[in-house]
């Protein structure tokens, strides 16, 4: 794997390896010194063409915990409106010897374009592109779900898949890169994915996706999902005739107190509620749901750093540039060679995983 | 800048004796070209040739009427960095064209007699093909009021085709009036069928692929609904309608229905819509970004069948050169359009002739005879017979070549056929009896009468 552009192209083996390495990274975060020397001397550029403080600081924390040098390049708005093209920006970063570029861009496909071009040699990590994908968000969601699934199954998280798990994703699927990345990744990992939302916010062509679509949230909840992931409703959709009013949206597709109670009534004691943040409390999710013990929202944020550490580590450590087709078996990352680093450093070895972190 | 070509111009009275050409892929015969006309066909050609005639051995080559493009973007005036009349018409000659229609979306827009005469004069000065300006339907392509269609029709450019191409004439009243008005001078409205509200921000065909790629969809219905409206308007007011770059199977059905009802509608398909599908967009490479967008393989098949059965009348290239910076960027920011003049013959041979859907006579019908009739070009798209104007090409159908955009005569490097191996090569192009292309390479432009005048004010 040279780049991380989408989860659609991620094999189950590569995805599991990423999640397993993320477990090790998570253990690092439990130490007194939360830092590994793995990427010392490497340069990671956070190239953000769109506001996203959360994702940017998550990547920044991840890179710093791996001892990489971090450059934040925040260019709000499109590159063209700034007058400099993506190509020129990329070539500038190339001239600065960036080893990895973490890119957030409002145009779908911009990271793929960067990776395929000869503008820059660096590894490219997609930190969200338009309405296409947000692979590290899906990986952190999968990581969070896997810990939960392993815990209630009485298993250890590493090596576990999501087989048998039922995940319901609710809201504006049409414009959601989080939904797309999750549909591909969660199904690759063995989960069954259900989608619910207004028909106007489901893409034409969703019928070809490996999931079931519901227009009625309560019918979807009646399928007894193990997790309900609420998508953020973007402000710009609210006045574009996708639905009559935010109140009607909230009544039909919001996770409100009534639906929170419904989970209890249905005896779905282990069903968790997820949200990629930032939330519109009272719109797609009620405050009670967001703050309930079922909510994994803060765990998702915490796990984001571990997953992004794993992605940076695997892309930059030099020994994983083999392609996915070689990865028929998930490797035991704990036994893998160290990154190709001249300096002696602390080995990356497995540490005990704390229990019950998702609840 | 272009004077060197004119300096190298040979005696315009050069005679060409073409021996052993396969006429429309049927009978083999000699052709004698003299004084801008086909002087003789058959055994008498050699006998009538003067001793100074240049003999071209055309054994194995197919002789066809010069291709006529109803849909070319030459970018001049305004975007001479993208293309000029000179470079675009060179590309056209190399591609086997003897006439091209220059779309009106230049800057300034070709919406007055002055601009269409300028483009026409630049074409005459270049001398590689007959450059026929298309006039805008509405002032500034603004879609609000009619441009001076009559003035353009009566100008020296003698405009017959009117189009706001790139933008749909979406106001139904304005479209009705335009259709009616051009009846006064036998004009035709060439519609870019795209319902604007249904395609706001549209990036690619709406369907399975757009759903995965997260690119805003351009639904087939946005094209089909306008075509349906326009054929009914054309029927109501008894006018002639031409539909540009038809791209969907549903559009084909509507046009087939309209023709069955006797509505005077003609339709065009581009070479790229006959070959390429939306799956190429998965690369996010903007060289595949075009309007209307690449569609599905089912659409491609329907378009091929429609071109074969006459539902679609003509191939139009929609040649749309762009400077590299307009394609060397993110998909959403990239310009729409593809070059096509130098690949049209090969793509149509590949998609239509080698599949058995069209023979060379059919090829001539869709690339020359019918487009000339729609554009009212009386000296183009004619039979290859004695006495006819000598607008013809010699094609080697057995040739195979690999598309290299960097080697093209157009300024645009945005060919979606890059690195594809395609059949068929234009060996010679004769424009009014003058060889603009010989041995597959540019020869010399034809010297047209007002050349000196135009060259003077170009400086």
UniProtKB/TrEMBL annotation, chain A:
Q: Does the keyword Transferase apply?
A: yes
List the Pfam families hit by this protein, alphabetically.
Answer: OTCace, OTCace_N
The record's top EC class is transferase
Q: Where is the Aspartate/ornithine carbamoyltransferase carbamoyl-P binding domain?
A: 2-146
| Bias-annotated ranges (Basic and acidic residues) | 333-348
The reaction(s) catalysed by this protein are: carbamoyl phosphate + L-aspartate = N-carbamoyl-L-aspartate + phosphate + H(+)
List the pathway annotation.
Pyrimidine metabolism; UMP biosynthesis via de novo pathway; (S)-dihydroorotate from bicarbonate: step 2/3
What's a single GO CC term here?
cytosol
Task: Enumerate the spans annotated as Aspartate/ornithine carbamoyltransferase Asp/Orn-binding domain.
Answer: 164-315
Which residues are noted in the entry as carbamoyl phosphate-binding? 54-55, 104, 134, 137, 277-278
Q: Where is this region: Disordered?
A: 319-359
> What InterPro entries is this protein classified in?
Asp/Orn_carbamoyltranf_P-bd (IPR006132), Asp/Orn_carbamoylTrfase (IPR006130), Asp/Orn_carbamoylTrfase_sf (IPR036901), Asp_carbamoyltransf (IPR002082), Asp_carbamoyltransf_Asp/Orn-bd (IPR006131)
EC number(s) recorded for this UniProt protein: 2.1.3.2
The family database entries (HAMAP family) matched by this protein are listed as: Asp_carb_tr
Q: What is this protein called?
A: Aspartate carbamoyltransferase
UniProtKB/TrEMBL annotation, chain B:
Matching SUPFAM superfamilies, A to Z? Composite domain of metallo-dependent hydrolases, Metallo-dependent hydrolases
The protein's matches in Gene3D superfamilies, at most eight in alphabetical order, are given as: Metal-dependent hydrolases, Urease, subunit C, domain 1
Residue ranges annotated for the Dihydroorotase catalytic domain, each copy included: 62-249
In its UniProt record, a GO molecular function of this protein is: allantoinase activity
Q: Name one GO cellular component term.
A: cytoplasm
Write out the catalytic residues in the record.
318
Cofactor note from UniProt? Binds 2 Zn(2+) ions per subunit.
Stated name of the protein: Dihydroorotase
Q: Which organism is it from?
A: Arthrobacter echini
The organism's taxonomy opens as: Bacteria, Bacillati, Actinomycetota, Actinomycetes, Micrococcales
